[in-house]
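Predict the structure of Lipopolysaccharide heptosyltransferase 1.
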Amino acid sequence: MSKILLVRLSSMGDIINAMPAVTDMAQAMPGLKLDWVVEESFQTLPRLHPAVDRIIPVALRRWRKSPLSGRSWREFSAARQALGETPYDLILDVQGLVKSVFFARMAHGPIAGPDRHSAREGLAALAYQKSYPIVWHQHAINRVRKLAAQAFDYPLPVNIDYGLARPDITLSWLPVRPYVVLLTATSRPEKEWPEERWVRLGQRFADLGLACVLPWGNAQEQARAERIAKAIPDALVAPKMPLDAAATLLADARVVIGVDTGLAHLAAAMATPVVAIFLASDPLENGVLASTYAVNVGHNGASPEVDEVWQAAMAGRRA
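Done. Here is the predicted structure for Lipopolysaccharide heptosyltransferase 1.
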């Protein structure tokens, strides 16, 4: 039996992109015990994978804002104690940053990660007892899967399997009729698809009798969702919800259409047909990727038209 600590602190999409590697490891090493150190705001995500034994949450983002507060010191001490109480056969840092190594070194066991030419911050590789070359210009999922396969010396499975379990949650506010999810919010303005295109797309779904559900994460995103929903018949702006509820929402959708955002990756991980719209980043390295229907449209500097997105959605949507 192997006892492993996985270090991937953030972000949402990158945490989700590490899930197939967890499935690979669990299949290659029966009886695997895997713990995961992750930012507190994302700790719900690893809990969705049945192979993850224990979550060790950290709050680095919050601690940096108030480094001298008593709460920060108490939480940091608790995290350090949790990391140090279990000996690990291997600590696998798939993030390759100085901050991820900082937490990896608190645990007991040899540390492995990408070599200095492959890590995002080459300095991090100096802390690894074992390091491996990983070609950078490939999808993030494949980078993590290949790193884990080298670290544990198993052949890479052909299929991508996120392995996530659907949360046992009932969303009483959902529409009775079939619905699609429109993920209109993203982290940077240059990644946003124009609101009028969202409206035109949503109106086409409404014409088919499909309800449009629009999630959001902050007040600005909520206002955007409300503007778009107002122009689409019977569209629904979702209430604010935790990530496990969002996973349930996405899992039951007929299709999900979203910009470059972590929730689009979560839709792919829940095996829901998903179309991801790219305007300011490279889908070849960061797009949605799954063994189920997952299509990327657009690319850096090119905004796809409504027809292109519609055709991709119709090709993959559930009946």
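The mean pLDDT is 97.
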